[in-house]
Amino acid sequence: MAKTDIEKYIGELREPADNEKDLDLYSLKKELTDLSESSEVFEDFEKEASIVSKEVLAQIPDLSLLIKIKNLASEIKNKNQINEKLHSMHFNLNLMKNDLTANSISSIKNALNVFLYNDKTKIENMINEINDFKTKLSKIKKYHTSLLPNTLDNKLEIENKYSKHIEQLHSIHKRQKDALISAVKLFLKLANKHIKNLKRFK
Asked: Cα torsion at 51, 57, 62, 65 (round to 10°)?
């Protein structure tokens, strides 16, 4: 990831929009549970991307777009794993909070590994995952627009087929991004408290 990308995200973490509120641990857990329950959106989109009626198929000028959409849909389905990674981050945040009153560094060591070093969950890779999700959604929208057939009825069929799913996926992407921002802010806040506590115990 380019340094400018990291700086841009750090700026977003430090300066949230006035109309947005940081999630506390409980609210973050609830949001992640809701996100996990939306996993069917990924599966439904992959299924829909594989099915096109013969009438519509006959009018699509570039059939290679269907293959591209199908491949992208399979790749986007994997973005559901972001939710599991966010759950892992939240779990370690809980451990950090519970250990605040004890002179213990085990939870902060685990959290440092999860947020900074583990290839699956470290902040930089999570940002890359979420940004890649957005890029793939933009490609899907581009291919979808080019895919529209000539007749109005078939055009509406394609619109109904993809538009709702794409809108739902955009919503999930934003919620994943917001959840990551909240998780990182909580991590920084709790890590700072742990450092202060450890200094006090010396």
From this structure: -10
Is 6:164 a contact under the CB 8 Å cutoff?
no
Q: Residue 192's domain spans which residues? A: 24-201
Distances (CA, A) of 45 to 35, 52, 168, 187, 196: 16, 13, 10, 33, 48
Does 5 fall in a domain? no
- Residue 51 has phi, psi (to 5 degrees) of -120, 120
**pLDDT tens, position by position, 56-92:** 677 777 778 888 888 999 999 999 999 999 999 999 9
The pTM of the full predicted model, rounded to 2 decimals, is 0.81
Token pair, residue 159, equals: 């619109």
Instruction: Answer yes or no: is 53 within a domain.
Output: yes
Q: Is residue 11 part of a domain?
A: no
